[in-house]
Amino acid sequence: MKLAGYGEDRLVRELTQRLAVGRDVLVGAGDDCAVIGRKTDAQWQLLKTDCIIEGVHFLKNADPKKVGWKALGRALSDIAAMGGKGWHGLVTLGIPADMEVAWLKGFYKGLSNIAEKFGVSIVGGETARSPGAFFCSIALTGTVDSKHCVTRSGGKAGDRLYVTGRLGGSIRGKHLTFTPRIEEAQWLTKKFPVHAMMDLSDGLGSDLPRLAQASGAGFMVYEEKIPLTKGCTTQNALADGEDYELLFAIVPQDAKRLEAAWKKRFPKLPLTHIGELCRNFETENLKSHGYDHFA
Amino acid sequence: MKLAGYGEDRLVRELTQRLAVGRDVLVGAGDDCAVIGRKTDAQWQLLKTDCIIEGVHFLKNADPKKVGWKALGRALSDIAAMGGKGWHGLVTLGIPADMEVAWLKGFYKGLSNIAEKFGVSIVGGETARSPGAFFCSIALTGTVDSKHCVTRSGGKAGDRLYVTGRLGGSIRGKHLTFTPRIEEAQWLTKKFPVHAMMDLSDGLGSDLPRLAQASGAGFMVYEEKIPLTKGCTTQNALADGEDYELLFAIVPQDAKRLEAAWKKRFPKLPLTHIGELCRNFETENLKSHGYDHFA
Lengths: 295, 295
Known about the structure:
Two copies of one chain form a homodimer.
Chain A: H1 8-16, E1 25-27, E2 34-36, E3 43-53, H2 64-81, E4 85-95, H3 101-117, E5 121-129, E6 135-145, E7 160-164, H4 174-177, H5 182-191, E8 196-199, H6 204-214, E9 218-221, H7 234-239, E10 246-250, H8 255-265, E11 271-278
Parallel strand pairs in A: 4-5
Antiparallel strand pairs in A: 1-2, 2-3, 3-6, 4-6, 7-10, 7-11, 8-10, 9-11
Helix pairs in contact in A: 2-3, 2-5
């Protein structure tokens, strides 16, 4: 059977479900990052890998500095989603033989810029010749205080669902220039007991069902409350993807205090209550808006 | 300027030389692995990334189980070269939409087999659609006792150069079925003060000059002593690449004891004294045998 039509989530689940992992693997495949450590450690290590491919995640005529920024930014967004911060990065490049050296230098400049901004050391990598398109795979380690580490799976029926920023229309530029929400997530997880969190990379319509499923909960969304990027429809917000915003679940008792504190701390970044986790899968239909890389 | 003709080593040097790294980065880009830790720590962390691409590192009709074995085996070979052992792996896949699901399952089976054999936990990964060929990038963490960690750069003029196994002709099959020399390197670095070590991935003709240059030394090789795979020429041994054997430098005073102990411990794996590090670049001509991914 060909992969197209098989379903990305199903494939990943089947490929990874029988992997043997050591006892120090607190969270393995299936969350934003892997979490490594002993339960009693004060800090845990986070591990994440991600890649961008020419023609899929950026176009040939894109500014190479922005592409370099995006390559590491995507992995940082996943580190943020666990409440962590980035530490060491490795860069694997698949390079077509006719690629311009100047383009690669621009790419590395963008990569260095975001690494410096977020305190990441680029400590190595690998180059190989690509017979097809350029690609870059980033591996990133991070750290998280164990008491502030948040996964996708801790959500409870009754929790309120929040998203940062505005959703949809990322293809118009934000997908190359977004800011990973490291600072916001660090603040949030230190101040509030966040039950579950993830970053929005495939669109709310795919990602929210994943968070709910990992938490063993259903969900409902007030579609009219979804914060839209200017000029975007709800459909854009659900299915465009690449928002790199945070989606998280928190008890309703904390909602008022959270909203007031957020406004004070991050006055320029909207925080929006978009729905709730519940007992049943009442809005399963959101799933049909999801983005499947192979569909 | 196009990359072809620019030189892989030059490109990598230029891309990585200006990267800012933290004080915990003991060895950064340019060695087999990055080394992370404080000088006084008993153990250090190793970080490595590597990739394989269809049509470059394996052919479409190759056994997927073997391809999966190779994908992780290459990174383990680099971990071995530092005297370390593998710990946690992350898998990034770029998958063409028309790929067979059965092939991917075979690939993961091979990956699981080698992970289990060497005690590596596969803790996560990422899948993306590849518009071109299939590729797999592996990120691997490892650990090494700080007092047994070996880099490429500690070689001294007068050291003897040794290689494990036989070189050349890997393309006939060994490139898919090799055993990373984790066990051998662990034994070696615990028993003997190894000055410098690396794994042979691009061929002795490329890799030895790298080790010598990193050590600030010249080298000479007794070409007639190079251990050849059956049916191979010296040229094959220098330039075929993908041997995944160890190359290391050790003081001549330890040579006799090493050779005797090795024979006893690893009776089936040849260990061969192929040359020496020296003060001048007397055999610079070996460089012309090297494998450049972009040439």
